[in-house]
Each structure stands twice: as C-alpha cells, then as structure tokens.
Design a protein that fits this description.
This protein is of the alpha/beta class and 281 residues long. It has one domain: TIM Barrel (Alpha-Beta Barrel), CATH 3.20.20. Helices cover 42% and strands 19% of the residues. It has a nine-stranded mixed β-sheet with strand order 8-1-2-3-4-5-6-7-9. Strand 5, helix 7 and strand 6 form a beta-alpha-beta unit. Helix 7 runs parallel beside helix 8, helix 8 runs parallel beside helix 9 and helix 9 packs across helix 10. Belongs to the HMG-CoA lyase family. InterPro entries: Aldolase_TIM (IPR013785), HMGL (IPR043594), PYR_CT (IPR000891).
Length: 281
C-alpha cells in the first residue's frame, strides 16, 4: 500500500504566499512520517502558479537524509521537466493529462493531442535521467462541461499512455463527482488489462464521501492513494470549499480498519497535523 502526501496540491491554490521557510518546515515534518512519496512542488510558470515559484529554493531546504520518502514534482511542459531534472533529489515528475479537452486547455494551455506529445517528451527525458513519470488522468470520472465521458474513453487514454511506456497512472476525480461503483469498475478494468501499470487514486471529495471512495478503490484493486492532511487544497473550479483533497488522516483510518499496515510513524504524523494548522490556518 502506497500513500502519497500532497502538500503541493494543498498549497498551490492559496492566494497568500506561504513563506519558503514555513513550507520547508512543514514538508520536512511530512518527510519524517514515512509516506511512500511526498508531492512537494511544481516547476510551472510562476504567473500561472505563483505559490509554487519557490520550488527550486524549497528543495535546497529539505532534509532527505533520514527520510525514506521519494519526492514528486508537477510539470506542465517540456521546459518544466528539464528544470526539474536538474535536481537529483526528485524521483517522479507528474504531468496532468485530461480526459476533457476544455480542462486540458484551462490547466496547461494545450490540446489533448499536444499534451500527449508533451507526455512523450517528458517520458523520453525521464528514461535518460532514470526518473519516473506519473501521469494524472484529470476528469477521469466525469467533467462539468458536458463533454463525452465513459469507461471506454478512459481505457483509450490508458492504452495511449501504455504505448508511451508510462508505468504510473493516477486516476483523478478532479471535481469530486466519482461514484463508488464507477471507481471500482475503472480500477478493476484497467488493472486487469494493464497489470504492468501501477494505478493510483487522486480523489477530491466532500468529507462525508471519503470513506466510500477509498473502499471502492480498494475493491477495484487500487493500492496507491493520494491525500492531503485535513483535506486542504482541491480544484478551485469545483466552487465548493468542501470538495478538497482526501484528508490523509481519514484515509489512514479507513485503510487501517481494512487491515492494511501502512508503516507510518503516527507520532510524527501527529506533529504534522499540528503544524498544518499553523501553515494553513
């Protein structure tokens, strides 16, 4: 079972800039917990994502010596990937590929066809550098634009990513609309069809819907889940402050009740929970 903690996703939409030293203190605390991966920052245009403009500086302040966690950074184009690959400390580059043409344009200012070309470029760069691409399939459970969506359409995208050699795909419920039956079916279908690909879940959810989404992912075979402490972050497009990220503390409770041993240091996690109150208010 892999738990990916996502402070980058929790922070990126906040209007007030969080001081780099505060970010570093928070992420260093997360690195003590024992998460498989920490999604810590992004190499994107600072005009598009001003909160993340200090990612390179932040990286220099992270204490990785005693941590077993790997680092993931989000990129939106080839240039961002090249910038991220200057840092040996980064293990994964994440790229948001959308099922929705509208959202792809809004999120990365590219068409889906252009975004797929970027995925191929990033994959080629990562193979040279010994890094791994994590492709997030945004709007993987539906979209608010009335655009076509089906399990078969998702399968077509997975097939294209498989052809490019992508080994980790995170099915993303960008606006919190995924129903448990659909979650279970999407994971079960794709995991059976592509056993060599690691499928993860990046859910956004109202608090009362978290447990059933995690249960559905488990039933479908998912063993990789993203979260953010206290559910901070989420998609601003949702226009609902309760549709944030899956709260990591709730996810941990659900998974442990199901008998999964997560090998997390819960004392350090408790300290991270306290620090989150200071960071996010």
């Amino acid at each position: 079972m892999k738990i990916i903690e996502c402070p980058r996703d929790a922070m990126q939409g906040r209007e007030e800039f969080i001081d780099t030293a505060i970010k570093a203190a928070y992420i260093n605390q997360l690195l003590e917990v024992g998460f498989d991966t920490v999604d810590f920052g992004s190499f994107v245009n600072p005009k598009a994502m001003p909160q993340m403009r200090d990612t390179a500086e932040l990286l220099e302040l992270l204490d990785l010596f005693h941590s077993k966690s790997k680092l993931l950074a989000i990129v939106a184009n080839k240039r961002g990937a090249e910038d991220a690959l200057h840092f040996e400390e980064i293990d994964y580059l994440g790229f948001p590929l959308s099922i929705s043409e509208t959202f792809q344009q809004r999120n990365t200012n590219k068409s889906i066809a252009e975004a797929l070309e970027v995925v191929e470029d990033i994959q080629n760069l990562c193979e040279i550098k010994g890094k791994t691409v994590v492709t997030y399939l945004s709007m993987a459970f539906g979209n608010p634009y009335g655009e076509a969506f089906s399990v078969d359409i998702v399968a077509e995208f997975v097939e294209k990513l498989d052809a490019l050699g992508i080994k980790i795909i995170a099915l993303s419920d960008t606006i919190g609309v995924a129903e448990p039956k659909l979650i279970e079916k999407l994971f079960e279908t794709n995991i059976q069809a592509y056993p060599e690909i690691e499928f993860g879940a990046h859910f956004h959810s109202r608090p009362e819907g978290i447990a059933e989404k995690i249960h559905a992912g488990l039933k479908g075979g998912c063993r990789r889940f993203d979260g953010a402490i206290k559910g901070f972050g989420g998609c601003p497009m949702a226009k609902d402050e309760l549709v944030g990220n899956v709260a990591t503390e709730v996810m941990i409770e659900v998974l442990e009740k199901e008998g999964h041993h997560l090998n997390l240091n819960m004392e350090e996690f408790g300290e991270a929970m306290k620090l989150a109150k200071f960071v996010f208010g």
